[in-house]
Design goal:
Strand content: over 45%
Structural class: mainly beta
Helix content: under 10%
Number of strands: 21
Radius of gyration: 31 Å
Distance between the termini: 116 Å
Largest sheet: 5 strands, mixed
Strand order of the largest sheet: 2-9-7-4-5
Shape: elongated
Number of helices: 0
Length: 225
């Protein structure tokens, strides 16, 4: 007989409460790896490279025991903590205060994702690992162009608790179009100016989606034709 060898086992120190993929490296092919605790019970043999792969969904906070056994090696026993999760959510609204449907809200930072607001303008990102940094950014465009938002984005550093009510207000873009009107005699003198301004669609602008406002031209001193 001889003294067993020691497996060098590597695995995450913690996993999120949601569904995640976990690998356990033992450096030994054919080792039996078991995960048990926090609503998880999984077992798999390592491949030729000594790795075992799992997809797990812990039922809540707690600890998952990790064991690895193989003849000729001392058994390994370790743990993985199930990290607490947090959420970020709110409502995207238009300038009038109503909900804005169809806005895209993006999550960046320690996790990434995108959601589109429904008729209630609401968005939410859940099952995020606590203690991390996240940024939420809205975007929306329509026939008038790309909207701007206040605030443009929200950043949460070392997030330790749920953040609800993180709202955004969008503004439709506005444009000014100008030019010079000359008299029918071809005088280069400026006699008036027309200004167009893009405003939100309504029933009075159903054809173009734009409504115009026009300054009264200054008198030219010439008879109208």
């Amino acid at each position: 007989t001889h003294e067993p060898n020691t497996m060098s086992v590597d695995h995450p120190a913690s996993v999120p409460a949601g569904t995640s993929n976990v690998s356990v490296a033992t450096g030994v092919g054919g080792a039996l790896v078991c995960l048990r605790g926090a609503g998880v019970y999984e077992a798999a043999y390592t491949d030729g490279a000594g790795n075992a792969y799992f997809q797990i969904t812990p039922s809540g906070q707690g600890t998952i025991d990790v064991t690895a056994t193989q003849p000729g090696f001392y058994p390994y026993q370790g743990t993985m903590a199930v990290a607490a999760t947090v959420a970020i959510g709110g409502t995207v609204r238009s300038e009038s205060g109503g909900p804005l449907a169809g806005a895209m809200v993006s999550l960046s930072g320690s996790s990434t994702g995108q959601v589109t607001t429904g008729s209630d303008g609401a968005y939410a990102f859940t099952d995020l690992a606590s203690g991390e940094t996240y940024t939420v950014t809205p975007s929306y465009s329509d026939i008038a162009g790309q909207w701007t938002f206040s605030p443009p984005s929200r950043t949460f550093e070392d997030l330790q608790g749920d953040q609800w009510g993180q709202d955004f207000t969008g503004s439709v873009p506005r444009y000014t179009i100008g030019g010079t009107i000359t008299s029918y005699l071809g005088s280069p003198r400026e006699v008036g100016r027309s200004i167009l301004r893009a405003e939100p669609w309504n029933s009075s602008t159903a054809t173009t989606g734009l409504r115009t406002s026009r300054e009264r031209p200054r008198s030219t001193g010439f008879p109208e034709r």
